[in-house]
Specification:
The complex is a heterodimer of chains A (about 130) and B (about 130).
Chain A lengths: L23 H32 L1 H12 L1 H28 L6 H29 L1
Helix pairs in contact in A: 1-2, 1-3, 1-4, 2-3, 3-4
Chain B lengths: L10 H6 L9 H27 L4 H9 L1 H29 L3 H31 L4
Helix pairs in contact in B: 2-4, 3-5, 4-5
The chains are: A mainly alpha (about 130), B mainly alpha (about 130).
Chain lengths: ~130, ~130
């Protein structure tokens, strides 16, 4: 039996992001994907760091020198923030997964809390790391 | 009429008529489990990185080769690479609609995740097991 040809779909596609007003929850949802994608690429830095450590003092010195520079520290600071933002965003999803936090008040609070919490935690971690040093 | 079936679905599966139901939540669960595991593992990772910053090579090697640090890093690499592979797969399936391009992107996604995992795991083992000899 010959496979039947599917009729061409000519119906309009449903509207996408551009037709909606930006809200906190929508922004944080989009941002969760962006931070996830950034972390995905950032794992290369972790791999470079570990491989350099295994390769020997010369390679490690070069990589440690990069991360110790002003630009390297900026990358690490941004990395910390993106990681924590994605982590808090994930915790927000856990709250939703168990069926809580869907009403307007709470979901807005959760979305704002993700951004504010990630900034506070990032600054706190760097402050502790620099004080202990 | 005995016609060769174009489907790989078994006759039993066709009779049951349940399609892919019962298998659809696998990735969803794996994403939740790895997300939960990522939280303690990434906190450990941040602590290890903060402790290593600015240390000379022998001290950095000693830190990573400590069994607890090595185990946290190995667990972190496995959990994170599994998590990021599924996450990127969802992003690809959402935005890449061309069949060939989607296949290529999914192939590259798995290759990237495995490459990062293998490089990191080899480096961790190389550094920590070198202690034995």
């Amino acid at each position: 039996m010959a496979p039947t040809a599917r009729p061409t779909v000519t119906a309009p596609l449903s509207p996408h992001l551009q037709v909606y007003r930006w809200t906190w929850t929508m922004a944080m949802s989009v941002f969760h994907r962006i931070t996830g994608t950034a972390l995905y690429g950032g794992t290369v830095l972790v791999a470079i760091w570990l491989v350099a450590l295994a390769a020997g003092p010369a390679a490690y010195g070069w990589v440690a020198g990069f991360f110790g520079s002003v630009f390297g520290k900026l990358v690490l600071f941004a990395y910390t923030w993106v990681l924590l933002h994605h982590m808090l965003g994930g915790l927000r999803h856990f709250v939703w997964d168990v069926g809580h936090g869907f009403d307007r008040e709470r979901r807005m609070w959760l979305a704002r809390g993700t951004l504010i919490g990630s900034v506070i935690l990032t600054v706190l971690i760097w402050a502790i790391a620099l004080v202990i040093r | 009429m005995a016609q060769p079936s174009p489907s790989l679905r078994t006759p039993r599966a066709r009779v049951k008529g349940l399609g892919a139901s019962g298998h659809g939540a696998g990735h969803w669960w794996q994403q939740r489990v790895t997300a939960a595991l990522n939280i303690p593992l990434m906190i450990g990772f941040i602590v290890i990185i903060a402790m290593m910053a600015g240390r000379p090579y022998p001290e950095a090697v000693a830190l990573v080769s400590h069994p607890l640090a090595a185990l946290v890093l190995i667990g972190g690499v496995i959990s994170v690479t599994l998590h990021m592979r599924i996450g990127m797969q969802v992003v690809i399936e959402d935005y890449v609609h061309d069949k060939g391009l989607k296949f290529a992107a999914l192939f590259a996604n798995t290759t990237y995740a495995v490459a990062v995992a293998v490089a990191c795991l080899y480096a961790i083992l190389r550094v920590s097991l070198a202690r034995l000899v």
